Protein: DUF423 domain-containing protein
Organism: Pseudofulvibacter geojedonensis
Amino acid sequence: MITVTTFIITGATFGALSIVFGAFGAHALKNVLSQDQLKNFETGVKYQMYHAIVLITLGFNFEYAHPVSYWFFSIGVLFFSFSIYGLVLSGAKGKKMKFLGPITPIGGLLLLLGWLTLLWKVI
């Protein structure tokens, strides 16, 4: 069962991890990644944080939350952001995990469906 607490804990976890990954990218990876790779990594971090904030906001405004939107946002972040992290880091090592390439747009689609589910719930 998806509860207020589920939304807030998931959002807070994603938010905390985005801070860790953002700092890791900005400091530890700055001299390892190309500018393009660093930009891609930052995109994953940004989208993760944006959706962490959405999950927390929905947790505090639970009347607008829907269990389906929780799953779309949560799985979307995992697929979108984490596949980008994997692609960038494996590419930097010269062993790009190409199987992750199709996962990223699926994650983006899930994030979009999360927003559309939210829109549907409000309307």
Summary: Helices lie at 4-28, 35-60, 67-92, 103-122. The mean pLDDT is 96. The chain is about 80% helix and 0% strand. The longest helix spans residues 35-60.
